[in-house]
Amino acid sequence: MEDSNVVLLDFWPSSYGMRVKIALAEKGISYECKQEDLEAKSSLLTEMNPVHKMIPVLIHNAKPISESLNIVQYIDEAWKHKPSLLPSDPYKRSQARFWGDYIDKNVYNGVKRVWTGKGKEQEEWKKELIECLKSLEDELGDKAYFGGEEFGYVDVALVPFTTWFYTVETFGKLSIEEECPKLVAWAKRCMQKESVATSLPHPQQIYDFALQYKHRHGLHSTEDTLISIRVLSFSLAPLVSFLYSTTTLAQLSLVPSSPQSPSDSTPDTAAVDIVGILRQAKSFNILIRLMKTTQLINQFNAQLLTTKSGGITILAPDDSSFSELKPGFLNSLSDGQKLELLQFYVLSEYVSSSNFDTLTNLLRTLAGAKPGKVELND
Ligand SMILES: N[C@@H](CCC(=O)N[C@@H](CS)C(=O)NCC(=O)O)C(=O)O
After folding, report:
1. Cα–Cα distances in Å, from 268 out to 259, 271, 294, 298, 348?
2. For residue 260, what pLDDT band results from cuts at 50, 70 and 90?
3. Which residue in 135, 255, 319, 373 could disulfide with 311, CB within 3.0 to 4.6 Å?
């Protein structure tokens, strides 16, 4: 089958799009992947999927195919060469389709309700999701894959959702591995396959996407932002060596809350209070003191609420980072020096932690533009 003209309309965090990528990779088909902005859909998407206007859409020789499991079946039939995704036996095929349908009806909603939910409802949804995953685990049994020894249709249908598990676990405060150890072992087995590993975004990227989604849709809580404080185990010594060496930093990436209406420009300081967030983490007392004495905190909070760049990033040094300083050193600094010191820890834009390690462009800290100062990935 001709495969030179294959285009996929996709949106990278979508598990439905990942299914199609895995199926294409299993068959070794090369294709062009076009990312859609689902808030401003392209005319190509609306023309190719006029009924649902949703991704994924596979366009094969100018003809569109919609609905992810329908696309996976199409790929299996249009490119008949091995590996086959659906079994040839009619009964086994019907069972594979049954479980594909079960996943469609239960997993997406189950996952989304847990990471977006709150309170009692979230507790209910956690139970429902775990029940659903346990049914799938029972169906898997002791088999390597859902179809037996070979990776196939049901694996393709389900495995993309597993890259959302970290997000579900973090926001839902649960351990899927504790509840469904065999299912998690299966997910790890699937990840050994190149077709899967190259088609799934890293769980951290999904988490960062989900965090931003919650902010954009007003679903976040202070606690969500707090759990986004993650200790990074790299050293920023060159960055700060002019004053002291640092041992532990947390990256606090903050995105602004969306204004209630275009006319609502009043800063809502209750919505994001950096000191409040840092205080809950309990180990940022020195940083908080410095922020307060320099008044920088007001600037940060205001900047967070008004910035157009999507947020700011604070590379927050915890109390232990200051432990190697000579006693009284911080107190000996003038207010101006304290301000300069703090500015080294702030990027005027939001950088997700998953992107942080792979940054290639030069990022300026707030202090970076001044002569004699150091830039972040200099
Ligand atoms: N049943 C569809 C679901 C696809 C779907 O939900 N796509 C979402 C992205 S994850 C979408 O395009 N949403 C845009 C919209 O609803 O307008 C499939 O399996 O392909």
Report:
1. 9, 6, 21, 12, 19
2. very low
3. 255
